[in-house]
Design a protein that fits this description.
Blueprint lengths: L3 E4 L3 H14 L3 E4 L2 H7 L7 E5 L7 H11 L5 E6 L3 H9 L4 E5 L3 H18 L17 H12 L7 E4 L6 H10 L8 E5 L5 H9 L16 H4 L4 E5 L6 H13 L1 E2 L8 E2 L3 E6 L3 H7 L4 H7 L2 E4 L10 H16 L5 E2 L1 H8 L6 H15 L4 E2 L6 H4 L2 H6 L2 H14 L5 H20 L4 H8 L3 H11 L1 H4 L7
Parallel strand pairs: 1-2, 1-3, 3-4, 4-5, 6-11, 6-12, 7-8, 8-11, 13-14
Antiparallel strand pairs: 9-10
Helix pairs in contact: 1-5, 2-3, 13-15, 19-20, 19-21, 20-21
Length: 469
Amino acid sequence: MKPVWVIDDDRSIRWVLEKALTREGIAFKTFGLAQEALEALKSETPQVVVSDVRMPGTSGLELLQSVKQKYPQLPVIIMTAYSDLESAVAAFQSGAFEYLPKPFDVDQAVELIRRALEESTRAAGEEEIAPPSLEILGQASAMQEVFRAIGRLSNSIATVLITGESGTGKELVARALHRHSPRGTKPFVAINTAAMPKDLLESELFGHERGAFTGAQAMRRGRFEQAEGGTLFLDEIGDMAPDLQTRLLRVLSDGHFYRVGGHQPLRANVRVIAATHQDLESRVREGTFREDLYHRLNVIRLRLPGLAERREDIPLLARHFLAKSARDLGVETKRLSEGAMSHLVAQEWPGNVRQLENMCHWLTVMAPGQTVDVGDLPPELRADATAAGESNWTAALLRHVEKALMRGESNIMESLAREFERTLIAKALQHTGGRRIEAATLLGIGRNTITRKIAELGIEEGDGPAKAA
């Protein structure tokens, strides 16, 4: 694949994107001026262009026009400060693939570049083969429920609302729902509704007619038209502006829409899958999300579990992402030691699967040896590793449960609950020198409860002193 071109006169912006693209295994080339890129364009072509708007000499808008004249299908991402919003709108309406506001989140920038790369590949007519990263992995019971839901929906084109924390893989599930649906051979079009201002989003969703506004030099088809016969995935739907909610509701209600500045109704033959990490019921109560739109979207709801809810999948996912990173970078796959794996299983993972994947990319590039130990993990994960190691009992518990299940044992919960209570009470009594009231206070239970538990669990007989208080 050809490289991504990054064009910005700000060295720090180039440096940040260089590091991010290197980490992701994406080939790139950087330029400090638009004129330099235009000179290079005479003898070579990129896969995607990422350009600033305001630069000395040739501007990003002029670069965009030159690129589009020569390569109309080449995706161009425009970077701009919020104060340059007018320029961004003009660029977007003149054919830019997307715009990236400064200051930007690096993960968001990389995700946007990946989307542009996919679009560029499709536009070039190359066969689109789903990479391994598009597979949804998981053995946890919570994920099995998700897989069963996808299977039950395989013959349906019903509207689906996917909920879950950021980074849980909502777009992957949307793609799977599309791929296994009757519309699977038609386009899958995704858009993050929170990633752009209202005016841009309206044009992006519904398209616009030539002359609809300043800078609209040609008619543009929106995402509803691009997804004709297929699936339109609306990510972060909870952030959509109220007037756009009204327009979307109208499309879902009667199946027709108008381009911006248009007078001819167009039919929307599209299946809509929406996603959000927000509590839409609360937003409805607050009056920031239309109740009728909520009910239109919430035909079938599919909740994705956070990574902390499916810890037993962490080893499987980590090995998968390490192998993927190694393939992308053309290096040998790194392996996590048992200690490092246990440490990762015990983490909270607020960024969920996306955070785990990014960490595996980091390890592939930064870890010194082929076997990764706790000390090789990123600083934010190995901080307080000793203390975290003491809390790794959850990882040990998971392994214990897995072995018990494999052996076909019964009454697992009851036996583990007894062992858990016995350990807590015995240790608390040991700490207090056998003083039951003090131990009960520390544990947060009553005096009668600890007395009954001591008798039920047989703690007095072999687990330390149990003196009367």
